[in-house]
Design brief:
The structure is a single chain. The chain is α+β, with helices and mostly antiparallel strands. It folds into 2 domains: 82 residues, F0F1 ATP synthase delta/epsilon subunit, N-terminal (ATP Synthase, domain 1), CATH 2.60.15.10; 40 residues, no CATH class. The protein contains 2 helices and 8 strands; from the N terminus they run ββββββββαα. Strands 1, 2, 3, 4, 5, 6, 7 and 8 form an 8-stranded mixed sheet that branches. α1 packs antiparallel against α2. The radius of gyration is 15 Å and the shape is globular.
Length: 132
Amino acid sequence: MADKLHFELVSPERLLFSADVEMVVVPGAEGDLGVLVDHAPLVALLRAGMVEVHDGGKVTARHFVRGGFAQVTPEGLTVLAEEALDMATTSKAALEAKLQDAQATLEAAADDNQRIAAEAHVAAIKEVVDAA
């Protein structure tokens, strides 16, 4: 379909999402990116945050991703995530458990680099827990 963007979300375990959609918003390392059909090619680093799939004028799917890359080509958008959770099938209890794990990692940080990365991860998960 010429008026739709082909989008795929892939985690190390499996293909999580594949469809033709109107727009996808991804959490880029430098800020959120809205990708529509015929977007210029690019490769972007991702930060922890929410991928939102828009179709029919509304958000139809939400996935939490932690790290990875987004690649836009003439064929569409592919997100290769280090970790991805489908918000439609993830319970609030599972998110709270992830938050506890992230906070433990923060407390165990051995240096400033580990602490900064852990703080960002904790903040992103808190946002997701609040949104769930």
